[in-house]
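Hi Q.,

Before the meeting this afternoon, I wanted you to have the magnesium ion prediction in hand. No need to reply - just skim if you have a minute. The sequence and ligand are here:
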Amino acid sequence: MSAPAQHGKTEPLKASTTVLIGAQWGDEGKGKWIDSLAADAELVVRYQGGNNAGHTLYVDGKKIVLHQLPSGIFHDGQVSALAAGVVVNPAQLVIEMERAAEFGVTLHPSRLWLSGRAHVITPWHVYLDEQRESRSHGAIGTTKRGIGPTYSDKASRSGLRLGHFVNETSRKRWLQQMRELHPEFNKVLSDRHEAWAAFEAAAARLAPFVTDAETHIRTAVAAGKKVLLEGAQGALLDIDHGTYPFVTSSTTGSAGACQSIGLAPRHIGACIGIAKGYVTRVGAGPFPTELHDEVGKSLATKGQEFGATTGRPRRVGWLDAVALRYVVDVNGLSGVILNKMDILTGLKEVKIAVAYRHPTAGELTSMPWDTEVLEACQPVYETMPGWSEDIPRSGKIADLPAAARHFVAEVERHIGAPVIMVGTGPNRGDALYR
Ligand code: GDP
Ligand code: IMO
Ligand code: MG
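Predicted structure with the ligand bound:
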């Protein structure tokens, strides 16, 4: 299905291979942007995370939330792929494939490549996630989708890969091995029999799509095809470079794309980050610019800040330029998309954090590695006048009201990267360009 004409134009992707990541704590609007930019791509690859993601897009005015499929799936002629670094919930993936079919997307093995190397989320992993999150101390506020336990089993070399999942003999062997390893496994098998039945049923449906996705992707890159590498979650949720332990269990940053696909860094032409004009976070963990006042409430209401996966209310705060500069540096971002700028319209004043103040260490101008230090930090703000004029839905960044242009210029100055596009609404093409 190609983009209907009323959706506005999409600026062409400049590099052959572009990585698009969330530049905050997730939910920056990756779904909408991948869907918009995919109009210009031949292949869209999701490279990490699982159905903890919730990517919202609108196709022909209808809302769709994707958890497992890449957000480029709604374009004709493109190939979509899940690479080795992804974790797959098979039953959820089948549901989404059926949903896509209702939207007229015919999924054929030639246009959906599922990596045989990707690890599988099972009802056992979901059970473990729920158990860990029910602790009275130390809960992360996960999505309870089994993400952490699946990546843990992968690292401890007892996981189930998608290629083995779709093979009945290998799948049974894995189940037997888990029974022997874990005394509670049998109980989880019988307590969650419906989930296990859906899990088993998905194997035959997914089998035709399981392939050596990484080799196909490398071949496409070598042939000079336009490729979009889609991150899930956000750079501050990265297992190494995020606010550990309040992170997800994968490499959400741009380097994760290379590792997941087995694609050398020299093939990456551009890394682009998506950030909101403010910040949200779901789950626990430090958040220096979090707002607990009326402004925060109004941003949450106007921005409809509820989790697309769990429905939890998102915590809301001012744009944190210290954290965003850190993300620009860690991920080599050549540009940032400043999304949901329409939500800031109508505020008397707008703020960005340009430093942190720590009770003993004083003023910090860079993001501390220690989450406890970050927890104790207060933001140092630059305050600017807001704007009340509606911002245009499409056109140029130069068409923004003067105060909004000033806001964008200050963000650029503080993060050390250009704002290349601005988001003005939830639909394809609701965007301003340079
Ligand atoms: P993702 O996880 O990064 O794909 O983001 P989510 O889908 O979880 O959350 C982003 C939300 O903002 C969704 O409800 C989108 O429909 C909406 N959205 C995306 N871009 C814009 C924008 O520029 N303006 C407004 N008002 N909403 C947007
Ligand atoms: P998208 O792709 C926002 C958060 C959870 C929790 C932490 C760990 O829609 O941006 P996990 O279930 O991954 O073990 O949870 O990460 N989290 C997200 N927050 N958007 C997401 O995805 C998220 N995926 C995970 O809330 O704090
Ligand atoms: Mg989301």
